[in-house]
Amino acid sequence: MNLLKLSWSYLQKKRLNTFLNTLLLAFGVGIIIFLLLVLHQAEEKLRNNAQGIDYVIGAKGSPLQLILNAIYHMDSPTGNIPLSEANAIARNKRLVKRAIPLALGDSYRAYRIVGTTHEYVDFYQCKIAEGKLWQKNFEVTIGATIAQQLGLKVGSKFYSAHGLEDDEDLAHKDHPFIVSGILARSGTVADRLILTNIESIWEVHGQHDHHHEEPVTHKEHHEEHTTDSTHTENHHPFVQKKEPVAHKEHHEEHTTDSTHTENHHPFVQKKEKEITAMLIQRRSNMAIVMIPAIANRSNKIQAVSPAREYLNLLENIGIGADVLQYFAYIIIGIAGLSIFIALYNALKEREYDLAIMRTLGATRLKLFTHIILEGMLLASVGAALGLLLGHGAVEFTGQMISHSSQMSITGWQWLTAELGVITLVLGVALFAALIPAIQIYRIDISKTLSR
């Protein structure tokens, strides 16, 4: 006697009950799998992109908004900050190990254009797949996802648009960007960014100023403290120029004199240069106290810890996810109850047939196993469909948001936690089938046949 085939044939006779029970289980498993995959991938990407960044210096405003914008490029900037104030922190070699400036404002086809230094590429350990890193103004190096989605190649030209709008009318038609290189896929936020130098962002927005302030980078920061005061920017493109002793008077004189120009800039800017944010990697534990304290002295900037905001973000996301997860467990519980009811009713209907099977030589253990198999078959089919449903929903969602979000997700990832979900479903089915199976084990053949 093939018990597996017999159990399956009984399930097929009750197709409506089988379908409803399987559907309930599939929905419950699908919801849990969807949440597991999305939360795991989101947490992994949030952690990887923020790893190594101890502080973000940015404009006053929402700390979470600043982190989402400066690190994950998922929100609007809180505003711009004076480059001089950011550099005042970046130059402190006792506190700062690495400082990476960011200038935002434009995009192409809803992908952000980020003005920064080559150190940003080094920080995320990105490799060049084609071409080279940008060297001149309006040269860009693009992420692998952008190259794939937009079909851009080395040598391609495009025009940026203000903000994240994909509107030809908003494009800066007088400043074409040229792709100089394409980054290899790194699994970081750099895959979805268009990187260039900060001067390009300034020039697009008319910030051709006469100010001497330039972004401080990790390399120049080291050189600044190991060379004499005669070291100039001719040696390194981002070295801070030395200002006259009368610093305040010097700026007041030059910001009011509209006829002042510099030899290397054909345009005049009447205000101080600004950036959007600066990523800071601390050198010592002293920086944990000192960097926020220095930033708080200003009424324009703030220093935000990504780790703290990252935990707050996960906590906020986790509340909603927990509610959905509890709902999914309730669905699985209801499905288990439904399986119990279906098997118990089937037992009453098939009691006479089962008694006949006993007289034909079927043992109590075989009949017991037969009922258990029915419940496990239902659970197995429901769990399998739930896995497909959950992974399919994640992949569909990932494709839907691939053009509009900096957070990419895929349904092709498998987690060990999924085994726990499957085990739970099989356990619920086993428990649901246990009582009907015990009833079969205790069946009185003579009484049943006499009825």
Ordered list of secondary-structure elements with their pairings:
Layout: H1 3-13, H2 15-50, E1 55-59, H3 63-70, E2 81-82, H4 83-90, E3 96-108, E4 111-116, H5 118-123, E5 128-131, E6 139-142, H6 144-150, E7 157-162, E8 171-183, E9 194-197, H7 198-204, H8 218-224, H9 247-256, E10 274-275, E11 277-282, H10 286-296, E12 301-304, H11 306-349, H12 351-359, H13 364-401, H14 417-441, H15 445-450
Parallel strand pairs: 4-9, 6-8
Antiparallel strand pairs: 1-11, 1-12, 2-10, 3-4, 3-7, 3-11, 5-8, 6-9, 7-8
Helix pairs in contact: 1-13, 2-11, 2-13, 2-14, 11-14, 13-14
Kindly describe this structure.
The chain is α+β, with helices and mostly antiparallel strands and 451 residues long. It folds into 2 domains: 3-46 and 320-450, no CATH class; 55-304, no CATH class. The chain contains 15 helices and 12 strands. The protein has helices at 3-13, 15-50, 63-70, 83-90, 118-123, 144-150, 198-204, 218-224, 247-256, 286-296, 306-349, 351-359, 364-401, 417-441, 445-450; strands at residues 55-59, 81-82, 96-108, 111-116, 128-131, 139-142, 157-162, 171-183, 194-197, 274-275, 277-282, 301-304. The strands form 2 sheets. A 6-stranded mixed barrel has the order 3-4-9-6-8-7. Helix 2 (15-50) packs antiparallel against helix 11 and helix 13 packs antiparallel against helix 14 (417-441). It is elongated. It starts with a helix and ends with a helix. Residues 208-212 and 220-269 have low confidence and may be disordered. Keywords: Cell membrane, Membrane, Transmembrane, Transmembrane helix. It is found in: Cell membrane.
